[in-house]
Structure formats: structure tokens, C-alpha cells
Write a structure and sequence with these properties.
The complex is a heterodimer of chains A (72) and B (315). With 72 residues, chain A is mostly helical. Chain A is built from 4 helices and no strands. In chain A, helix 1 crosses helix 3. The longest helix of chain A is centred in the middle third of the chain and has 15 residues. Chain B has 315 residues and is an alpha/beta fold. Chain B is 42% helix and 13% strand. In chain B, the strands form 2 sheets. An 8-stranded parallel beta sheet of chain B has the order 1-9-8-6-5-4-3-2. The radius of gyration of chain B is 18 Å and the shape is globular. Bound molecules: flavin mononucleotide (FMN). The site of flavin mononucleotide has 29 residues of chain B, from strand 9 and helix 9.
């Protein structure tokens, strides 16, 4: 699942070689709040999961992964 | 006569919302707009729930037409306000920046039409999935908190992305703006700045005078560094804020502190030095104080004329 998420994120950044680990933060991914909403929708579609609600506690890729698991 | 699906959806005569304005749009303004045939919207802003409840009850006394309440999701009181809204059931609830999904179901179950302001396609699509009856696509020309895109570019793209009625907001101040919004695919508009000078608007007279004097180049966006940009008039306060924003010795906390409460200082106290006079780029064409009824009827009479005239260009 992590690999799939990293794939979605790399796709979103348009950079296949972007180094992404569970500890990568949204800040490091250089995403603003509009990007994050947009990304979340793509993640929901990619994982066919329920709604993911990003809040202030979601800072890293691993946090997002946890939300995806909860939403599945 | 102009009549669109949003009129049928909400039972209003003119497809126009008076945009919520924190500290400014109260029951009196909202009721005046609703009585004039539009949809007035009470701004909850950062107010506590009991105050918002009083305003909703007051509006119900002042009009039997539908009106809306805007819940500011970033307010620490948002949860309580959301509940009061669900209990008192205004016809419409609008929301701005932030995540409304925690409350959407409660409002919809209460029979309230939830109509969020959206800055992007993703937010619009997500909102519709969560039950939004319509969306307000607001461009960065607007006053107050602003998004990245312009109304011209945002509205048609949102219209393509969702299957609910779209209202356009940001930079709409007269009939030309309404006609243009319709050409972009919107079936209604939301205006804030133009209603600042409504006779029934209780904002400080200094604020109104400033809007009336404003030229097209007189607004500026501050707060980008903090991640929540705001458009306001280029007053001493805005210039100072901008200067601090580019000063790396000033911390974000100091900046936040400088901004806190500054809209109230402008709206309630009319303080020309220390207030943040939020207003949109369209303020330059707002030239006089009028009643809400005059504003709305004038805007739509002009829009109707223009929409008819547009046909002349089609050969
Ligand atoms: C002084 C002021 C305060 C505002 N406060 C709010 C608010 O509390 N909540 C909100 O959703 N929008 C707020 N807005 C945005 C308006 O509701 C509206 O969408 C916007 O003014 C439309 O653009 P215009 O100013 O170009 O007409 C505010 C706008 C102004 C000018």
C-alpha cells in the first residue's frame, strides 16, 4: 500500500524519482492546502476508499497512509 | 426577467446572494437583502453560538423570506455554531475555508441547503459528494480571504466539474458582472463588496466612505506568508502588514498578532489607521450608498439589458 501511495504522490509531483518515505512531510512535498485537497481526491479514487479528512495532525506520508487504511 | 435554477431551488426572486461578511453582515442586512428578493446571509464569523442564535431569530422576525448563515469553520466556536444552525434551520448555510464535512450531514438532515464557497475543483467535487446543493466559486478578486484563481478562470472549470448549480463570486459589482458570470456558466452570483455600502449595512460610515472613494488599484493582498491571504484596501494598516510580511526579523506569530481583530477595528470602530478594510477589486466601481432593494434591482435590470444586447454580436 505504501508503494502505491508513493506512486500516486510521485505521479502528483510529476517526478518519478522524487524520494518519498513514510516520514516525508507535506511541507517537503511542497504542497499547499489546495494541492492537498486535490491530492486527497486522487488518493480516494486510487484506493477506492471512503472519505479522507485531512486535518492539522496529518503532517507526513505515514499519517496519510493511516487515514487511507481507516477509510477502507 | 431573469430566473435561474437557483431561484427555484431556494425560492428566491433574484439569483443573488449577499456574501457573508464577518463583523458586518448581521440580521438587519441579511433580512433587507432577502426582503429585496435575493438571499441575505448572516456571517457568524468568530462569534459565540448564542449571539449567532440571536441573529438568526432576529432575521426570522424581520423577514419571512429564505436567508442564510455563514459558518466560519476556522472559528474556535464553529462546532457550537454549527449545532445552533442545525437547530434553528435557516434555509441555507454557507461555509468558507476549512473542512465542513464534519457538519454537512447534520445540516442536510435538518433540511438545510448547504452551499459551500469553493476555491478549487477538488473542494467543489468533494463538497458535492458530501451533499452540497450548489457551490459558490469564488475568485481572488473578492474581498476578505481569497483563493489563488480568478473568477474568470475558476467559474467555467467548476461548472464543468460538478452537476449542481454554480454561483460566481469575486469581482461582481454590477449588471455586467452578473451577465459575465452567466456567460461563464454560473446560474447565480454572490456579491460582498457592493453590499458593504447598502443603506441597511451597519458597517462604520468610515468604511462605506472608503469604499465609495476607492479606485480600481486600491486593494492589496496580504497574509500570503501565513497561508491565508486576505484582500483589503491599501490603508496604513495594510501597508504596514505588507512591510512586516517581507521582513524576516518578524515572526509569523507577530504577524498573526498584528492581523488579529483588525477587521473588527475597521468595521465597528472605523479606525482608519489600525483597521483592516477588507474589500474586493470591484470596490472601484461602487459609487454610492443605496438600499439593498435598489442595489439588486439595478444590478438585474442592467444584466437583463446586457444579456439581450449580447445577441447583436452573433451574426
Ligand atoms: C469585509 C468582508 C468580510 C468577509 N467575510 C467573510 C466571511 O466571514 N465568510 C465568508 O465565507 N466570506 C467572507 N467574505 C467574502 C464574501 O462573502 C464574498 O464572497 C465576497 O465578498 C465576494 O467578492 P466581492 O467582494 O468581489 O463581491 C467577506 C468579504 C468582505 C468584503
Amino acid at each position: 500500500m505504501l508503494d502505491k501511495l508513493i506512486g500516486v504522490l510521485r505521479d502528483y509531483k510529476g517526478d518519478e524519482n522524487f524520494v518519498i518515505t513514510p516520514d516525508t512531510t507535506f511541507e517537503e512535498l511542497n504542497l499547499d492546502s489546495l494541492d492537498i485537497m486535490d491530492l486527497v481526491m486522487q488518493v480516494e479514487d486510487a484506493f477506492h476508499c471512503g472519505e479522507i479528512n485531512i486535518d492539522k495532525n496529518v503532517k507526513k506520508v505515514s499519517d496519510l497512509l493511516r487515514l487511507i487504511i481507516d477509510a477502507q | 426577467m431573469i430566473h435561474t435554477p437557483i431561484c427555484d431551488l431556494l425560492g428566491i426572486q433574484y439569483p443573488i446572494f449577499q456574501g457573508a461578511m464577518a463583523w458586518i453582515s448581521d440580521a438587519k442586512l441579511a433580512a433587507a437583502v432577502s426582503n429585496a428578493g435575493g438571499l441575505g446571509v448572516i456571517a457568524a464569523g468568530g462569534a459565540p453560538a448564542d449571539l449567532v442564535a440571536d441573529q438568526i431569530k432576529r432575521a426570522k422576525d424581520l423577514t419571512d423570506k429564505p436567508f442564510g448563515v455563514n459558518v466560519m469553520l476556522m472559528s474556535p466556536n464553529a462546532g457550537e455554531v454549527a449545532k445552533v444552525v442545525a437547530e434553528l434551520k435557516p434555509a441555507v448555510v454557507t461555509t468558507g475555508a476549512g473542512n465542513a464535512s464534519a457538519f454537512a450531514k447534520m445540516w442536510i438532515d435538518a433540511g438545510i441547503d448547504w452551499i459551500p464557497v469553493v476555491p478549487s475543483i477538488a473542494v467543489a467535487v468533494k463538497s458535492v459528494r458530501n451533499g452540497a446543493r450548489a457551490v459558490i466559486a469564488e475568485g481572488g478578486e473578492s474581498g476578505g480571504h481569497v483563493g489563488e484563481l480568478t473568477t474568470m478562470c475558476l467559474v467555467p472549470q467548476i461548472c464543468d466539474a460538478v452537476n449542481v448549480p454554480v454561483l460566481a463570486a469575486g469581482g461582481i459589482g454590477d449588471g455586467r458582472g452578473i451577465a459575465a458570470a452567466f456567460m461563464l456558466g454560473a446560474v447565480g452570483v454572490q456579491a460582498g463588496t457592493r453590499f458593504l455600502v447598502a443603506r441597511e449595512c451597519g458597517v462604520h460610515q468610515n468604511y462605506k466612505n472608503k469604499i465609495i472613494k476607492t479606485k480600481e488599484i486600491d486593494s492589496v493582498v496580504t497574509g500570503k506568508r501565513l497561508g491565508h491571504p486576505v484582500r483589503s484596501l491599501k490603508t496604513p494598516f495594510a501597508r504596514k502588514f505588507l512591510q512586516y510580511e517581507y521582513d524576516s526579523s518578524i515572526t509569523n506569530e507577530q504577524l498573526e498578532e498584528l492581523g488579529a481583530g483588525s477587521l473588527r477595528v475597521a468595521a465597528v470602530e472605523g479606525d482608519n489607521e489600525n483597521g483592516s478594510f477588507m474589500a474586493g477589486q470591484i470596490a472601484g466601481l461602487v459609487k454610492k450608498e443605496q438600499s439593498a432593494l435598489e442595489i439588486i434591482t439595478e444590478m438585474f435590470a442592467e444584466a437583463e439589458k446586457i444579456l439581450h444586447r449580447a445577441e447583436q454580436w452573433v451574426k
